[in-house]
Amino acid sequence: MLTIICILTAALLPESAAAEPPYMTFSKDGYDRRIPSQAAYYPSTVVGDNIYKKKVQNGAERLEYSPLKRPQDLFIDRKDEIYIADTDNNRIVHLNRDGEFLREITAKGMKSPQGVFVASYGTIYVADTGNKRILKLSASGELLAEYGHPESRFIDESFHYEPTNLVVDARGFMYVISNGSYQGIIQLDPEGRFYGFYGTNMTEVSLMDIVRKLFYTEEQLSRQVRTLPSTIRNIHIDAQGFIYTVSATDKEQVKKLNIRGENQWKDKKFGIEPRFRRRSQAAETQQTDSKQEVQKSGLTDITVDRNGNLVAIDKVSNAVTQYGPNGELLFFWTGPVTIGSPQLGISQSPVAVDTNSNNELFVLDDSQNLIHVLKPTEFGMLLHKATSLSQEGKYAESEPVWREVLRLNALYSPAYQGLAEAAYYKEDYKEALRLFKLSGDVGGYSDSYWQLRLQWFQRQFSVMANTVFAAAILIWIFYRSKKRMRFLTQGSQRLRGFLGKNKLLVQLRHAFTILRHPIDGFTDLRYRQKGSYLSAFLLLLFVTLVLLAKEYYTSFTFMPVPSNERSGSFLMTGAVTWLTWVVCNYLIGSIRQGEARFKDVFVGSSYALFPIVILGLPLAAVSNIMTLSESSIYGFFQTGMLIWCGCLFFWKIQSLQNYGVGETVGNILLTAFAMIIAWVLISIIAGLSSELQNFFYTIYQEVSM
Amino acid sequence: MRMPAKWKRLFVLTLLAAMTSASIVTYTIAAETRTPNGAEAGKTDSEQNAKRENSAESARGSEPGTIVDPSQTKDAKAGGGADGKTVTGRSGQTASNSYRSLFPDDDAFRLASENAYLGLYVDPKTGHFLVKDKHSGQEWRSFPDANGWNDKDNTNTWKKHMQSPVFIKYVEFNVRKDQIKETNVKDQKAAIERFEITDSGFRLTFDMPDIGFAIPIEVSLKDDSVETKIIEEGFKDGKSSEEMAEYESRTKKKDKNARIAALRLYPFLGAYTSDREDGYLLIPDGPGTLIQFRKDRPPNNNFYFEGVYGEDYAFSNNNQSLSIRQPVRMPVFGIKAGGQGLLAVIRDGAEYANVLAAPSKSMNQYNWATAEFTYRQRFFQPTDKRKQNGFQTFNKERAHGDRSIRYYFLDAGSPDYVGMAARYRQVLTEEDGLKRATPDDGSIRLPIYLLGADSKKGFLWDSYEALTTTSEAEEIVNELTAIGVKKMAVTYAGWQKGGISDFGGHFPVDKGIGGNEGMRHFIEYAHVKGHDVTLDASSYTFNNTGRDGFRSSRDGLQDLGSVVIKYGGRNETSKTLVSPRFMEKVLRRDLDKFKPLGADGLTFGEGLGSLLNSDFNERHKATREEVKGIQQQLFDQAVQTLGSVRAEGANSYAWKYVDALDGLPIENSFDLFVDETVPFMQIALHGLIPYSSTFANTADNYTTYLLKNLEYGSIPSFMLTYAAAQDLIGTRSLYNYYSTHYKDWSEEIAKQYGRFNEALGDVQDRMIVGHRSLAAGVYETTYDNGKRIVVNYNESPYHGSGYEVEARDFAVVHGGRS
After folding, report:
1. What value does the mean pLDDT take over residues B530-548?
2. Which residue windows does the record flag with biased composition (Polar residues) (chain B) (predicted)?
């Protein structure tokens, strides 16, 4: 029962289950993991697929079926009425709030209109793409004005003007997107005069461009295609007058522009990450079109609902993503692209999206020629309520709502974020600490811990001060009376004597000597038998244990990985690298007049890891009382530990192989080179032998059939 | 070990030299092997293209796209050309109505058999028949109805298909092994042989010597139904080797070796155009789904084509066209046109049948529904060890046995989906042996799923994560009983050794949740409180531990290419589908171990009643039909041994054994071309078996979910853990369940139990006799004791005659039918 087959066969089957919409909704937690969720929107119906227009033929009035044809834009006005730019039918279609056909608008030879906008006072603006102009129509559809090619000294005749979409702000300024225009949005004043460019994208310079610039001659550069800013794909304006643009760029895919054209969301990422795209589809794109891989983002349109949540649609991966008012990811889902069986709620080629006053989502599909309507689910509405309360700073009010969200979906970790903020606000730092950890917010966790530590210090100050004082006195007494406590010194001497006799312990203790006198220490390893395979293995064991302990006990602040995802697999990589190092270093050493035997290299390399044993545990321990503000200290010791190890390796080579500094550097570089070669060889041989095996198997299969 | 430095240097140098030369040699080998490999790759590429093409075209791909004979293509073009402007003028008058020339006239039919209800008339020339209802005078034809015929809307290919009593899909093994061709008895100029009138109908054989097919069929009358049957005896699915040799010596050409892949018998029985827009097709998608007759549809080739009892996972390897729809649980479909309706139930060979339903304009101008019987299935034959490269082909050995469909013609009084469902209920009781539920004490039994334990990926090794131990389960049961849940049916899942992600070697109950002893104690405790406890046994379908003497390569379910079928995603354990015969052995042995625990029974699911897969593993070979038998036997034996069985998502062949059904669908598969979900399955089952739907905890729209359950007469079910739901993060199998903590739900459960008891408590043994929409978003379900439940999905109250339904609420209306 529990193992509903569709979930378990994710690799095999598209996800679908009884009573669930044909897509699975996900969110992302603080650890960047995909988490399942109830659907945020539920497919409700389709509209625009049964348009019958009245036609008078031979005096008799009859209804004619007149479906949409490659529509490109959708607009929902204040009264929730729907306007569609029915591009290939050269008209604007006007539907009522239930999706029933009201009228079509075909003012003055409209040709392939791709954009439509209806102002709050009812005026209809149409991007009449085919005629390269903007049409301004009255609410009843009469022509008020038309604006052609904008004229300005900034725009020359060669400027290709082809308006595809537009929005109009409260002042009547028009923001027009022209097909292929990299200068940005064309801003026209209410009279249609050119006002300026707005929201221009930055040129994105790739690494290859920089390389080219460095090495190409001027002539070659002039022959290069100029790197131009990406064009803006689509545009939206929200109730506050912020303008949102969508572009196919790497960064700033979605911009929230204020009136001065400044992006409010500079460092936010939008669009669905490739790893969340459907696997089957990714495979498909690999096969069919490598160009799609290049496509940075398939975002085609955005809209902002009444709660300030942003919904973006992605044509390439057929995904819908929803962001909260601050641009944080709330939900996403991707539709399976199944040829032949289109499903309700899954558009195959989404081109435009809009919401109405009930926050219902309308997605226009230009291949199915209809609009999918998705209703927010109870869970979705609850979450929107919670985010908007948090957004308004009503933490106390938001708390019960967040709790209800969590009752319905305990995995929805963004909710822990909301609760954690509420707890932090209430100065319940312990709770906040726990919740921030659940939500994966390192910063919040660290801040709460800082507060807790502060409280602890404040509370314990007197005790601590007294302890320090007492300890100081005790130490003083201890040293004063040291002479009198002979037996202690004797005891320690006896212990030392015992340690001195046990050969293994001597060898282990030698690790400390190496720390103090590396060059001599390493030499002693060999010539005074201060190291053996046994001690080396023991040291390696210690290193392993310490690393595991460190991985496990390092505080959340410095290792923000959920405990069940911390794994010991890094040890394997470490061990393999270390072993390759030992072998290659030995081989290189032996052809480069080195003196070290294999044993020396092995033992020496083990001893060189000793700083990890010493510093690993204290680091892990100390990380538990540190916050992010002390991260530089932690970082210093962490890198210090590694550098120390590195130095020891260096000295090890130098002393055991009897090299000068220059020779040692050469040796290290050669060893690194040899390591790479070794692994290339190993992988080639492994690959080829399996290929060969496979080849024979295939031949056998074909012959035997 | 002391060597002179010189020697040593020499040694190392040779070593390095050897390494380099080895790498050079391997590279050259690589280059050489690449060349034939490249050719190979080229070939497989083209094959893959073909495969892709095919998979797109196959089954659910696009029916009209399949390859047809060249002659037909020409016809099709001519037919298609008729749509063009140039031709219409000429052919407009002459061929505007060719219906009469294509289909037999009423005069051509003569009486074959009759009974008190129906008369069956046959046309021996074409093999078509006509059924007349003696009471209502309604007529049903085995070919398309005349009303609304428009020549232009049907291509010549389809005209021939529509004329033919049998539609044939075949594959030519000597031409292309992976491609389906379509033909029909008309194109093959089949001769009607051995025509005879039988006691209850007629029998004849379509003989097609050119291609080597012979299809004997029988049509017989039985009370209010007509059965059409393809008879195994005398069935010839291709030329014998002698015939092929004879053909080859005569024509000096290689025989194409055509073999039947699938058949449709009388596919256009009851096909109507959308001219009047007064009917619908009922398809078994979800609980039952309607496709209305509509004149205008957006131009897409959408139709319904689904295998009865779901996909056969023995054909799932490398199969890109696996269904995204819900599996078909019952082998039925229905047609309503105007005042007449029929219900079709697939009888013999249902496990090899697909239900095909096409609305008008998807292929031709007719709304039609039929069953397609598969004889050969496409599968992927891998040719390399990784099972990734290979080719698609069809199995050489065909499926055997009779194939029959029974058409029940409905009373003129109730030709709608309620009538269809009622007739199906009659089939279930009269023919399948289902019994009416015995009246209980008037309260419902609430299905509760408890999750025992799962394993979690740990820091160094997997950890066992107890979610509900047996003593904790007692606590949950105690609390729920205390706040008013009188009767529960507890299903304990994940009780087995190692938790829910460990398959195989179930016994003893894991120590981590209390062991056998704890389980026994819990069950006793629950019994005292008046609840039933069953243990989940669907996990016997899989194995991933190697316990029970299981070895994946030996005892796993295999496909025709000897690929063992395994599942598993990222972070999940991979698990192997166990050969049904092996599972039978293990479960039979374990049944006795359940007994001492005192469980009231088992809960079956997955490979026990839900998944029906054939097995081509040589050691445990079983056909789909045989596996169905195995499953039924296991159900039977579990009932015999333990007393009762519940089942989750069970197919109709298991219904007669079960005490309760879980996971009944309440929603269709969201196809764009369908119009409405109807509680067909629920109407058929209510009063026979209590049923519940999917888990309430994970419902997207909780309120709507509850209302839908009330409308459909179904009891909600809950999945609970004692542990907090966060503990499920990172588990191997349960990470998808986001709200299971019992504390979060107990009050809600008690509240809903009370509500549902009020609505459904006293009608658990009652039939649903009516279901209709009173207004947009308001539905009424009527039970045979006169109780009516009116559900209002709207945001505003609904005012009925003499009652009122609050917004998003329901009301119980007593009294006679209005």
Report:
1. 92
2. 90-99
- Nearest CA among A425, A472, A466, A463 for reference residue A444: A425
What pLDDT, on the 0 to 100 scale, is given for residue B20?
63
Q: Which helix (H) or strand (E) holds B685?
A: helix B680-685
What pLDDT, on a 0 to 100 scale, did the predictor assign at position A58?
A: 75
Q: Using alpha carbons, list the distances in angstroms from residue B695 to A17, B496, B717.
A: 11, 22, 5
Instruction: Please name the fold of domain A377-453.
Output: 1.25.40
Contact B649 A18 (CB under 8 A): yes
Task: For residues A442 and A416, give the distance between their C-alpha atoms in angstroms, rounded to a whole number.
Answer: 13
pLDDT one-digit tens code per residue, B99-154: 888 899 888 899 999 999 999 999 999 999 999 998 888 999 999 998 888 888 88
Identify which of B27, B567, B741 has the shortest CB distance to residue A9. B567
Residue A346 φ then ψ, to 5°:
-120, 110
- Does the pLDDT value for residue A7 go beyond 70? no
Residue B425: alpha-carbon gap to chain centroid: 19
Do B456 and B499 meet the contact criterion of CB atoms below 8 Å apart?
no
Q: Give kind and range of the element (H or E) at residue A370.
A: strand A370-376
Return the number of other C-beta atoms located less than 10 Å from residue A440's C-beta.
Answer: 22
Is residue B748 within 8 Å of B739, Cβ to Cβ? Answer: no
- The pLDDT tens digits of the residues spanning A355-371 come to 999 899 999 988 888 89
> pLDDT tens for residues B180-206?
999 999 999 999 989 999 999 999 999
Task: Compute, in degrees rounded to 10, the torsion defined by CA atoms A441, A447, A451, A457.
Answer: 110
Please state the three-class secondary structure of A75-136 as a single string.
EECCCCCEEEEEHHHCEEEEECCCCCEEEEECCCCCCCCCEEEECCCCCEEEEEHHHCEEEE
Q: Do A13 and B536 touch (CB under 8 A)?
A: no
Interchain contact, B694 vs A280, CB within 8 Å: no
Task: Give B694's contacts in chain A (Cβ within 8 Å).
Answer: 17-20
Type of residue at A502: N
Tracing tokens 């929200």 back to the chain, one arrives at A238
- Quick one: pLDDT at residue A500? 65
Among B567, B522, B288, B558, CA closest to B423? B288
Section A293-316 average pLDDT: 80
Contact B670 A346 (CB under 8 A): yes
Read off φ and ψ for residue B11, nearest 5 degrees: -60, -50
HSE at residue B353, side-chain half, CA atoms within 13 A, is 31
Peptide linkage before B331 cis (omega within 30 of 0): no
Name the CATH superfamily, with its identifier, for domain A29-198+230-376. TolB, C-terminal domain (2.120.10.30)
Nearest CA in chain B to A371: B672
Interchain proximity A18–B700, CB inside 8 Å: no
What are A579-626's pLDDT values in tens digits?
Answer: 999 999 999 988 888 888 898 899 999 999 999 988 888 888 888 888
Residue range A315-327: average pLDDT?
Answer: 86
CA distances from B84 to B149, B153, B297 (A): 19, 12, 20
Residue that has been written with the tokens 């919904």 in this structure: A311
The ranges assigned to domains in chain A are 29-198+230-376, 377-453, 499-688
**How many CB pairs (< 8 A) connect A and B?**
238
Q: Which residues contact B233 (CB under 8 A, 6 or more apart)?
A: B216
